[in-house]
Specification:
By secondary structure, this protein is mainly alpha-helical. The chain is built from 3 helices and 2 strands. Strands 1-2 form a two-stranded antiparallel ribbon. The longest helix has 23 residues.
Length: 87
């Protein structure tokens, strides 16, 4: 299994599942990037909408991946919300 790049939000390291959701939402363009948090949250919201509307296939695997990506994406957004950052 490949290890996801380390992703930190204001000193909080994301889990591999959270980092994967962020990476996939950003089309894999994470390596060495510093992202603004509001832009990342907006991208995650768009990613969740894409998953809801388009899915990842009608089979069990696709539905499972949608559920897992959505769960991880939401947990990143919740982390940001709990940090009470001023944008």
């Amino acid at each position: 299994m490949l290890t996801e790049p380390a992703v930190y939000i204001h000193g909080h390291r994301l889990t591999n599942a959270q980092a994967m959701a962020v990476r996939v939402a950003h089309d894999g363009r994470l390596l060495g990037r510093v992202m603004d948090v509001p832009g990342m949250v907006e991208t995650l919201l768009k990613f969740e909408e894409h998953l809801r509307v388009d899915g990842l296939g009608d089979d069990e695997h696709g539905r499972t991946m949608v559920a897992l990506y959505t769960q991880s994406s939401r947990s990143v957004r919740e982390l940001v919300a709990n940090l009470n950052l001023d944008f």
